[in-house]
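User: Here's a protein and a ligand (0O2). What would the complex look like?
Assistant: Let me lay out the input and then the predicted complex.
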Amino acid sequence: MDWKTFLAPYAQVVEELKVKLKGMREQFEYESNHSPIEFVTGRVKPVSSIKEKMKRKNISYDHMDTDLQDIAGVRVVCQFVDDIYDIVRRLRTRNDFHVIEERDYIQNKKESGYRSYHLIIRYPVETIYGQRQMIAEIQIRTLAMNFWATNEHSLNYKYEGKMPEKVQSRLKRAAEAAFKLDEEMSKIKDEIQEAQRIFYTYKRKD
Ligand code: 0O2
Ligand code: 0O2
């Protein structure tokens, strides 16, 4: 398996999507002094975790490009839960890719306590041999959800999927606390945004 050649178009997808989503953030800031997007990251799934997932989900090499949907992954992190749905609505209507699947792990949190909104998209990439339709995953979450998921991800890595019950239940409690934080912040969203607008205008004067 020539991984470098196989992963090259995915790397292209990640780079292009990062530019486009960061572009949205800049346009929001420029035009409204507030961006529902806090930051954007992205990565191509490392070969070791591709292999691990193929084994776990019984995916063959022939079906990798259709059945492994997060080889190219970008993440959009927002301040507020409402911002997530705002971004989702905008992404659905774009003409440069097609949303082929949506998973709302905010309304339907995962057993672990994980919350995020996932979009699976079909994204055309131009190669020297012509156009290729690639599958990519966009994860959209709040800062609080991201904080939780990053820590849980590290613990999962540490325990290799065999996390002690006690740690698991603490994480579930932490997930609820993070969601409570999102709910509380939403209630004072207008006030926070007004303060941020004033600060932004002040900053732009220099
Ligand atoms: P870890 O902790 O092992 O995961 P830039 O061009 O500066 O904006 P850069 O430096 O290429 O960006 O990296 P970026 O895009 O800021 O962030 C990469 C990190 O974000 C990786 O962490 C990924 O784990 C994580 N990440 C971003 N988007 C996704 C995604 O959609 N899915 C998943 N699973 N992870 C994502 P590290 O550094 O590899 O470390
Ligand atoms: P990575 O790159 O290490 O993050 P699954 O069966 O849940 O493994 P599936 O069916 O492909 O995966 O899709 P799903 O669950 O919609 O999305 C998978 C990705 O969502 C994961 O990628 C994680 O990035 C994130 N995710 C899903 N559930 C959890 C969770 O409980 N905790 C955390 N921290 N992240 C989660 P990978 O493959 O795990 O890889």
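Summary: DSSP finds seven helices and five strands in the chain.
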